[in-house]
Each structure stands twice: as C-alpha cells, then as structure tokens.
Amino acid sequence: MDHMTTEGCQTHADARPSWDQYFLNIADVVATRSTCPRRAVGAVLVRQRQILSTGYNGAPRGLVHCTDAGCLMRDGHCVRTSHAEMNAIAQAAYHGVAVSDSTLYCTDKPCLICTKLLINAGIRRIVYRREYEDSVSDGMLAEAGIAVEQIDPR
C-alpha cells in the first residue's frame, strides 16, 4: 500500500524563495553579463510570473564594450553603457514584447533617466536590492503611482 508523507518536506518549503526573491535572484545572474567594470546591474521584466525580457548594463548592440575599450567617462559616469533597465525595455521592443503593467526586478534602484523610461513604458512595480539615492526619481515614481520595494539589500 502506497502512502504519502510530508516528512522532510517542511525544510524544503521553508527554503523556497518567494516569487520576488526568485526574480531578483535571476536579476543577479543577468548582472553577471554586464560589460562595464564599474558596476554590474541586472534587470528582469515580469508579468504574471512570466519573464518578458532581461537586460544588463553594457554598450549598445554592436558597439565596443567597456571591458574591451575602457569606460567612457563624463561627469563621473560611464556614458558608453546603456543601463540594465533601458536594455530590458529595448530588448522587449526589439522582439515585439509589450511590457506595460509589468514588474521590474533590478539589482539596483533605477536612476532618474531609467525612472522616466519605466514610467512611460507602463511599469507598475519596481523591486530592487541596492539603493540608488535620487529624491527626484523617488518623487516621480510616487507621483506615477508605481509601487517600489527594496528587498534583501546587499
């Protein structure tokens, strides 16, 4: 006679990540593809628990990367690279995937320029790990009604 038991299952269930943690962990892996040595950032766009697109910071398609040519600095920022959030939106557009009403999972809180892109793309929620201080960006996200949540900061 076969019988089922839950013995030993409780430990696995307790270790299983939440959906937010799961997608943020994927963003961490996406960040490993970054081609700018100054900071590795990964982004994942998700709707209804389905990945729509990913992006990492790096040079535009077909152009030389920072890892090959060095960072192109202006006002303390590398301008050779596009940000992970930008690349996730661009990758979705390139493949004809709508991202409205989705959630962005990102290793870092978006900058002001990315914030404006995310608002215009119809992103409804942002989950991030590392803080990026910008009160103007915070104000715009609040005004746009986008939910923002930091989890598991590192």
Can you put this structure into words, describing what you see?
By secondary structure, the chain is of the alpha/beta class. The chain has helices at residues 9-15, 19-31, 66-69, 84-94, 112-121, 135-144, and strands spanning 42-47, 50-56, 73-74, 77-78, 103-108, 125-130, 147-150. The strands form two sheets. Strands 2-1-5-6-7 form a five-stranded mixed beta sheet, sandwiched between helices. β1 and β2 (50-56) form a beta hairpin. α5 runs parallel beside α6 (135-144). The longest helix is centred in the N-terminal third of the chain and has 13 residues, at 19-31. The chain is globular and about 65 Å long. The termini are far apart.
Keywords:
154 residues; alpha/beta; five-stranded mixed sheet; two-stranded antiparallel sheet; globular
Summarize the topology.
Layout: H1 9-15, H2 19-31, E1 42-47, E2 50-56, H3 66-69, E3 73-74, E4 77-78, H4 84-94, E5 103-108, H5 112-121, E6 125-130, H6 135-144, E7 147-150
Parallel strand pairs: 5-6, 6-7
Antiparallel strand pairs: 1-2, 1-5, 3-4
Summarize the structure in short.
The protein has 154 residues and is an alpha/beta fold.
Largest sheet: 5 strands, mixed
Percent of sequence in beta strands: 15-25%
Mean of residue pLDDT values? 93
What order do the helices and strands follow?
A: HHEEHEEHEHEHE
Per DSSP E runs of 2 or more residues, the count of β-strands stands at 7
The percent of residues in helical segments reads 25-40%
Morphology call? globular
Q: What is the SS-derived class? A: alpha/beta
**How many helices in DSSP terms?**
6
Low-confidence segments, ≥5 residues, pLDDT <50? none
Rounded Rg: 18 Å
Question: Which strand order does the major sheet show?
Answer: 2-1-5-6-7
Gap between N and C termini: 50 Å
